[in-house]
Structure formats: C-alpha cells, structure tokens
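Standup notes, protein team

Yesterday: finished cleaning the Roseimicrobium gellanilyticum set.
Today: Glycine/D-amino acid oxidase-like deaminating enzyme structure.
Blockers: none.

Input for Glycine/D-amino acid oxidase-like deaminating enzyme:
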Amino acid sequence: MDLRSGHAFWLVRNGILNAFPALDGDVRCDVVVVGGGITGALVGYHIAEAGVSTVVLDRRDIGWGSTSASTALLQYEIDTPLVELQERFGTETAQRCYHSCRDAIYKLRELTQRLDDHCGFSLKPSLFMAKRASDTAFMKREFAARKEAGFEIDWWSAREVKRHMKFQRPCALYSRDGAQVDAFRLTHRLLEKAQADFGLRIFDRTEVMEYKVRGRQVLVKTNRDCTIRAKHIIFATGYEFQQLSDRKLVKLHSTFAFVSEPLTAGRHLWHDNCLLWEKADPYLYIRTTDDHRVLIGGEDEDFRDPEKRDAMIAKKSATLKRKFRHLFPHIPLEPAFCWAGTFGETEDGLAYIGQIPEFPHASFALGFGGNGITYSVLAAEILRDQFLGKTNAYGDLYRFDRHGGNARAHKR
C-alpha cells in the first residue's frame, strides 16, 4: 500500500540518514520484527536491549512508510474522549488507558535522552479547543473526568482563550502533558543505537512473502528467497495489517498536512507554542517544529485509493492554510511542503497489541489512531515483557479480545 505521497517534510529535511542492506542470505534469530517504521524501531530496540537476538525487516527503505508522513504530536488524549471510554469500559480501565499514554510520553523522553541526537523531542502543553458553543457541555464533562483521573488540566473560558491565544473559541482544555518529535529521525537513531550497542540486525528493501510454523520455529521467506529462522515474529506493519488478516479492526482515512517556511518569530508564535487541536469534523491540529516552522494537519477523508487522495493535496492544503489564518491572521504563513498520508482508527480508539489465534508464534504491534507513537512505546514494552515471560501493567488494555459497548472514536 502507498501510505504517503507529496513532499513529506521529514524526508526532505533529513535526507538519507542510513543505508541498511537488503537481506541476501539465510539468518537465525530469536525474534524477527516486520516493519521498519517508528513502531518497528521501538520494538526492535527494546527487545534487543533485553539481550534477545533480533532482526528488523522492512520492504521499503527504513522509515519511508507512514512514519515519514507522521506529524508526531504526542498526547495522552486518546481518539476516544475519556468520558466515552469510561462509558464503554468503566472508569478504572478508561483512566488506565489514558495514564498509559501519558506514561509513554515520559518514557519516550527518557529514551531520546539516551541518544546523541534528541530528534527534536520537546515536552509541550496542548490545547483542546471547542469549535462551537454547543460543544461546551461535552467539554465540561471531559474536563471533570480528566480532573478526577488526576491529570494536570485547566479550564479556559472564552475570555481566557482570547487572553492567552488572541483568537476566539467558546472554551478549551489546557493540558500540561504533551510533546512533539521528529519520528523519522527517531526511527533511524533508535536503530543505529540498537545496532551498535545491542547487536540488532536491520535489513530494508526486504519483503516478507510468507511465514510458516515448524514445531517451535518460525520460518520466514523473503522476496530474495532467503529464510529467517526465529522463535517468534512480531508484525509492526501498521495500516498494512489489513493485507495480512481478514479481521476488520481499522477504518482507513486519508489525512493531509503541510509545513511552512521557517518563521523569523518562530521561537514564540503563540502561548507556549503549545500543541493545538480542535473538536471538529474534519478536525484541525497545529504544532511548531524545532527549526521554527508551523506544521498543520487534518481535513481527513475516508480512504479510497492513493490517486484520489493525492489529487486532493493542493485543495486540502489551501483549506488548512485558510483555517490557520483565521486563527492567526498576524502570522505570515507560506506552505513549504505539502503531503498526504493514510492512517486508521479503531472503533474504540485503542491500539491492538498482542497475539491472535490464527497467527501462531506471532505478535502484533498495531498503534492505530492519533496516538500512534505513544502506542508504539507501549507496544515495545508490552511485547518485550511478553516474550520474556513477564507481566506488563498495561498489557491487558490493548488485547485483541477486549470487550465493550459501542462508543465511537472521536476523530482528531
């Protein structure tokens, strides 16, 4: 599947960070990870760090799938609001889901601090804005639920939004636990370090054609007729999971983004340069970058095919620019790079992490939705612990066999 198109900023900015070889011979390992995006990098890093012989494969160049199109806003807010998640799973489970994502942000900070390159990681507060006055009742319920769950969050009235942000919105929730990063760069730096320090082996342009179970072994065949013998296989293939399984776990969407030219006033554009996102459909989100640009995304459409998605890039970018100027008419914004990507959301807004019966000796790290990177951190720790026979505090939350009602994910 073609997961992104246009001129994804992270590819242009970073260029070729590493050249990994294609697999051209048979290998043995304990765990083979299929997928060389941010999820596969995190999973491979954590498992190799634990002393497990690990191989990471990707059919593209490393990080060239949906990771290269990610806007990489890191938030504990799941696509499903806390009040709706509580209705579906109960208060305790819903709060644990939200707390797991907050924990993942700070675990990722610790991880980037071990790297020579911090990959643009920066803690950021976030502002969740009501679009219409009719949203106020929902926002008050969500505020109360998060307060009860112990999150640091402030209620901003219309007057406070105007005072802090200079634009008008009926109300907003100001959260202190958020962050941003360059996911493409982080993918490469994690793999570099795991290769150098833990013996991780990485092969790109290597496609898995099939895998079979022989006794306690997994046999993986590649496009060059090479065989990988492993004890376990982990699929970190994201939205391409639909090509592996008939399970209908995710609904695909096309999303659009652009990044501006660098701004001379980029060090302080608005209050704390916080992450901005809006309760709207189609939604809007805004962040800054560490080289003083503004990155804007949203305007989702149901995914049909890459050609129709790509034909909308110019129109959608113009719409995003118009929405930004409505908020910040004083900021002279000019798009530098525009792109589109494909992402998915689950019915309940949660990731799928773990095993399913029809795939023996296999695990899945499927961080669907707006929390993709925080889910990837959780998947890396959960799957590492499962392979080592340990219990993970959050492992039960993201199982494939979880149950609940019919709450619908809130797109952001």
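Follow-up from PR in the comments: The two ends are 23 Å apart (CA to CA).
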